[in-house]
Amino acid sequence: MSSSQQNKKKKPTAEAIADEERQYAHSPISKEELHDKYPNRPTTMEKHYHSMNCSSPSSTPSKRTRRKKPGPSMARKKAGPHGPSNLSPHEERRSIIVRFMSRWRSQVGDDFFPALRLIIPEKDRDRAMYGLKEALVAKLIIKVLNLSKDSDDGYNLINWKLPARGPPSANSGDFPGRCYEVLSKRPMRQKVGDMSIGEVNELLDRLALAQKEENQLPIFREFYQRMNAEELLWLLWHPDGEALFNISSSLRRVCWELTDPAVTLEDDETGVELMSCFQPQLAQFMPNSFQKLVDKMCPQGPGIKDQEFWIEEKLDGERIQMHMEESDDAPGGYRFSWWSRKGKDYTYLYGNSFGDDNSALTRHMKMAFDPRVSSIILDGEMITWDPITNKIVAFGTLKTAAISGKNDPFSDTAARPVFKVFDCLYLNGVNIIKYTLKDRRNVLESSVCNVEGRIEKHAFKPAKSASEIDPALRKIVAEGAEGLVLKNPGSMYRLNSRNDDWMKVKPEYMTGFGESLDCIIIGGYYGSGHRGGNLSSFLCGLRVDDKQIRVGANPMKCFSFFKVGGGFNADDYAAIRHQTEGKWIKWDAKFPPTEFIELAGSHQERERPDVWIKPEDSVVVEVKAASVGVSDSFRTNFTLRFPRFKRLRPDKDWKSALSIEEFMELKAKVEGEGDDEFEVDKKKRDSHRVKRQKIIAGTADDGKSAYAGPHTDVFEGMKFCVLSEMIHPVKKSKVGIETIIKNNGGQISQSPNGKEDIVIIADKRVIKAASLIKIGKTSIVRPIWVLDAVEQMEKDAKLGGPRYVLPFEKDRYMLYITEADEEEIEGNTDQYGDSYARDVKSDELRKIFETMGDIEHDDEETEFDADALLAELEENGKGLGLDKMKSWMFRGCKGVFVVGEKIHDDLRLEMNHFEFGRGVALEMEDLKIEADKGGVTHIIFADDMEGKARDIRKESGRSGSKPHLVSWRWIRDAWEKGEGKLDEKEYLIKG
């Protein structure tokens, strides 16, 4: 009798019932729904194992049975009566897992799901995503342990990919291993903890629902208090397991429907199931020639001609499967589910029914299916379509487009998701994955109708020879597509398989097309897993051209261009490591090395490397790419699509690496050529080492080059003494600063004699600078002023503006200020530190904005008087000519409007024009008060009030003021002509 049969006769214990309650208390579906969906599901009969059993009895030994390093071969021992006595690592791991599962079934029960969801957590689709990346987990552990972020352990947790600070560590790139190192130093428990598997699953379910740190932290604290360091290691561990659940992508279903090892699935149970996610078939990488590709596919089957295959465009989108079934409960009568290739549920985005008002797709699909269709499963690609350009948009915009489609479903201009269907796997209760592709396509054609711009059948072209692939590939590449997929029309659908029935052809696999570029490495990224602690991918850049160098850029400076990690083998990594060892510098986000490298983003944050290297210390690599695309992730504003490393270029250095100007010329040339032959890109490597040319020590070029920076006369007649190197915001040697000064008209003195006519330059308090500060008679200027002064002079010269030496600024330029200079220097900026003479850069302006709220204002401070400023400018003959603008034409006018009880519309409009033109409109009762002050300049009359002009003139005359008495038409005509105020003589009211 099997353990499954024995368990059916038992009754669950009270502890087992409690564990089951914990296990499924936070499930997204109720227990009643579970019983309905799985009426024969297994139950737990005894209390769950202790949580350590999920690591010690199975996982820990399994991890220890790794493949041994190659060595002298040993004869395989023959199997004895109890099986082979010398198991391979794979066989030993399998044996450990089988024994553990067997023991669980006999001692706990047939429900193995609680244990399996801990052993392979990444396959558990029933538990919500935690939303916890390594950085956030590290932050939580630091808080639980009350560590300082700046301590060695705090630093090592946050920077887990980097080599450890402090004692040497073998866990670089291994996040759980790094956590174990830290936790094992300060464990709450030395012995095994007291948590059962059910309790662990309950806490993990709560963690998945906790979205804020204050809710996550108590859960982490409970794990820390109730588990030892080894248990916590396995809690954080995510194994890289194979896909064990291709058909359903449901760990729960695998555990509950395959409880008895003696019972196997029937043929009709190994297909896809409606409303249950599966692992789709994938395309194989192509062999080394088109002809071999066609021969490998070997299409066979009834009605299929010899060597016939189908060519489809490879779409740049997300692989999606759509399930639809008839349902009386769903609005519109049909229920939908959508899943990605990795099993992520997107039903909330694309819609659960025809009547789903929040859907981006289903509400538009009512006419997409033949009336005879009651249930169907479709396989396809979700793309983003731009209805204005009629083109596919890059994949990264898909989710944005889907959300936009939910919020504005009937827009004719916004990008939208479109489901491109290329396969049908299930129809009206019949599983058809074992039908040929041609038959499945016929089913698709008769079941689905195109709804343009929403759901469309993906087109294909039948082909008979390898020669038809080349023009098809050339055509789609010219249109900016990803590549081709070639399919065998006589093949069945194979779940979670890459095989020769589907082959993908992408242009980066070709030679004779795409750019072969020699670029300099400027940054590196540490890998994880087996690449932990080593650089696994690199940031490459383009040298700045003469244009940037002329405005002060270091000739070695590079703009970030692309990131490459594919194509390297162990020898390549070793060669790069050998040539660059000891020359890598950790990237400092606060002080980025902008003298040598410029990244994208206002804070140099995009594609930021872990470490960087000076171009003169780096190596040149040859890379191949499919094409060039626009990108705001790199400083060049474009990047390579699918870059792949080809080889190192020891014959080149940074001076001969590709520059921005050279690349743009190459790009234009390649885009103008369309007749290259496509050939498969065989990566052949010369097995012989490159023989380095031997040189006599001391005779090599020292790498120094002539000054290539700007030449101005900004420092003409000035003398400088440079005391130290420049350390902020970029590093520059003392000699380098002196070179800039001399090439821009200045003179250099090596002795700071304290005279007023010498400008002292220093960025740190070296002995000479400290002595001058102690004497207190000489202000000291930071080297950044030299660079800014040259840059500002060049800008002003281009604009034809006045030429002057940039004034000093207290916060930006001064290392030390004497009392005599302080007041003058402080007057060179406003209260926020914004210079009156220099064009500030965007990042500096952002910092100024951030500090504005911290400045305390004087309550008695008067508002800025624009009129007073304009009057002062006019007095000095520097008026701005604003009086001819309608918004300024009545500036300085104070007008009293004399109107009756009823104001006609024309007059009301001109009153508004008067005020818009910065005139001040007063009422009749204000006339005497303002006239006494002498402030009224105009008295403006409505047509029916001109008879009162005599009395008003007498009244205003008593005060000594002489305002103009004019008709309201004075305002109207001035406004219509738009040339400023008109002469009042033509509009005077007589009386």
Automatic annotation (TrEMBL):
Belongs to the ATP-dependent DNA ligase family. Its EC number is 6.5.1.1. It comes from the Eukaryota. GO terms for molecular function: ATP binding; DNA binding; DNA ligase (ATP) activity; metal ion binding. Pfam families: BRCT (PF00533), DNA_ligase_A_C (PF04679), DNA_ligase_A_M (PF01068), DNA_ligase_A_N (PF04675). DNA ligase involved in DNA non-homologous end joining (NHEJ); required for double-strand break (DSB) repair. SMART domains: BRCT. PANTHER family: DNA LIGASE 4 (PTHR45997). Keywords: ATP-binding, DNA damage, DNA recombination, DNA repair, Ligase, Magnesium, Metal-binding, Nucleotide-binding, Nucleus, Repeat. Residues 410-544 form the ATP-dependent DNA ligase family profile domain. This is DNA ligase. Residues 19-49 have a biased composition (Basic and acidic residues). Residues 63-80 have a biased composition (Basic residues). InterPro entries: Adenylation_DNA_ligase_IV (IPR044125), BRCT_dom (IPR001357), BRCT_dom_sf (IPR036420), DNA_ligase_ATP-dep (IPR000977), DNA_ligase_ATP-dep_C (IPR012309), DNA_ligase_ATP-dep_cent (IPR012310), DNA_ligase_ATP-dep_CS (IPR016059), DNA_ligase_ATP-dep_N (IPR012308). Transmembrane segments: none annotated. It is found in: Nucleus. Its cofactor is Mg(2+). Residues 710-792 form the BRCT domain. It catalyses: ATP + (deoxyribonucleotide)n-3'-hydroxyl + 5'-phospho-(deoxyribonucleotide)m = (deoxyribonucleotide)n+m + AMP + diphosphate. GO terms for cellular component: DNA ligase IV complex.
